[in-house]
From TrEMBL:
Protein name as it appears in the record: DUF5689 domain-containing protein
Keyword ATP-binding attached: no
Signal sequence residues: 1-23
InterPro entries: DUF5689 (IPR043744)
Stretches assigned to the DUF5689 domain: 44-241
Cross-referenced PROSITE patterns: PROKAR_LIPOPROTEIN (PS51257)
UniProt keyword terms in alphabetical order: Signal
Xref: Pfam families: DUF5689 (PF18942)
Annotated source species: Belliella kenyensis
Length: 424
């Protein structure tokens, strides 16, 4: 009994000591909150209704920052609307700052600015989400001439996830819904459509200083994803946002490698069928390449399949059209990236105007395919050409031999959404 009494007294003493320690540290988290809230955090306050921005709602913060992506001088954003975006923890969001024209005109694309949000509101004005109630003293430039991120995507993804892309820089490669009449310019609201089957408007104000540029049947259209009074549109910022104009996309393109199923080409080298696969656009030879359908490993840009090339070969691997396109070509585009986290490789686009007897390199070899660890978004290759006779194309992945981690990089390569544009 005496032994248990001693243990009990010991435990009671420890309990009292622990309790007194707790009382001495009732507020261990006291300190100064971070005054800066990342722009995606501010954006997330909006739930469909106008809201006053307060420190309480931002956990003590009252400042945000962003890169200016609009071009006030070109005249294709409403006067006084300064559009900024910021990427935080791989989440990119944008907002419009509703200012006076005099204040907004003092900033340029690439400026990195800081905004004091006190006494301001987050709301939609004529459809556009942004911050109102700001004074000139609440906005200041931190630095200038920064490069800006652009999300290259298809129209279906833009529309399905518009809340993510609104007021950010995007680029879609598309055709005009209606072939342009002679003398048609960028001025006005023009509908475009891409391989996803979805359409969206591009908009250039007739008073913008680049509105008189000729409108080509197809191009990569870069600009700000904007919620206008007439719906979703891409507002080009200036003449540089009409990228690589060309003829219209060939019917049935881009080749998305979705049909047939991956099981139709499960081996890199199926000699018995000469590696010919009947795809949506016609027969293609896939030598040392397969149809890959592994999520987050194969480079799927649309759908669930892409082409995957073998690694470490001492001979070339090919993805080759076995048919000609009758109206030549003005542009070729495709998406690429390393398979999963493989090393990069070297590959090139080649063309033939004699039914595949001889081939010529188009542009320069490509060596910058990146891994999923670097980015889950593939890169787009684009080649402007002027071929006025029947033509076919292939991708040639060079056989550099086994990767050695230093001088030779020859990992697996992913390709998707191969597109060819008619000459016009």
């Amino acid at each position: 009994m005496k032994r248990y009494s001693i243990i009990s007294l010991y435990l009671l003493s420890i309990s009292l000591l622990f309790s007194s320690c707790l009382k001495e540290d009732e507020n261990p988290a006291s300190g100064t909150p971070n005054p800066i809230a990342a722009l995606p955090v501010v954006h997330n306050l909006y739930k469909g209704e106008s809201i006053e921005i307060t420190r309480e709602k931002l956990s003590g913060a009252y400042i945000t920052q962003g890169y200016v992506i609009s071009d006030q001088r070109a005249g294709n954003v409403p006067a006084g609307q300064l559009i900024i975006s910021y990427n935080w923890r791989s989440v990119n969001r944008g907002l419009t700052l509703f200012l006076t024209p005099e204040i907004a005109s003092g900033y340029e694309q690439g400026d990195f600015i800081e905004i004091n949000l006190e006494n301001s509101k987050l709301e939609r004005v004529n459809g556009t989400l942004g911050v109102t109630g700001l004074q000139s003293t609440q906005v200041r430039r931190i630095d200038s001439d920064n490069s800006l991120d652009v999300a290259a995507l298809d129209i279906a993804r833009l529309k399905a996830n518009f809340s993510q892309f609104e007021n950010t820089l995007v680029m879609v490669t598309a055709d005009l819904v209606e072939f342009p009449e002679e003398g048609k310019t960028l001025a006005g609201r023009t509908m475009i459509i891409d391989g996803s089957g979805e359409s969206v408007a591009i908009f250039v104000d007739p008073s913008a200083d680049f509105s008189d540029i000729r409108l080509a049947p197809s191009a990569s259209f870069r600009g700000i994803a904007f919620q206008g009074e007439q719906g979703i549109e891409i507002r080009l910022r200036n003449s540089n946002d009409l990228v690589e104009p060309s003829g219209p996309l060939y019917l049935g393109y881009p080749e998305d490698y979705e049909d047939p199923l991956a099981s139709a080409k499960p081996s890199y080298n199926m000699v018995a069928i000469d590696n010919i696969v009947e795809l949506k656009t016609g027969p293609w030879q896939m030598f040392q390449s397969i149809l890959g359908d592994i999520q987050n490993r194969d480079r799927h840009v649309s759908g669930t399949q892409a082409v995957r090339f073998q690694q470490n070969l001492t001979v070339s691997a090919f993805l080759e059209m076995k048919y000609d396109l009758p109206k030549g070509a003005s542009k070729v585009t495709f998406w690429y990236g390393s398979y999963f986290n493989d090393q990069g490789c070297t590959f090139q686009l080649e063309s033939s105007t004699d039914q595949g007897q001889t081939w010529e390199i188009v542009g320069e070899p490509i060596t910058d395919a990146h891994t999923f660890a670097t980015s889950s978004i593939a890169k787009q290759a684009s080649f402007i050409v002027d071929i006025r006779e029947p033509v076919r194309f292939r991708i040639n992945k060079l056989g550099l031999g086994p990767s050695n981690g230093t001088t030779v990089r020859n990992g697996r390569l992913g390709i998707d959404d191969f597109a060819v544009y008619e000459n016009y």
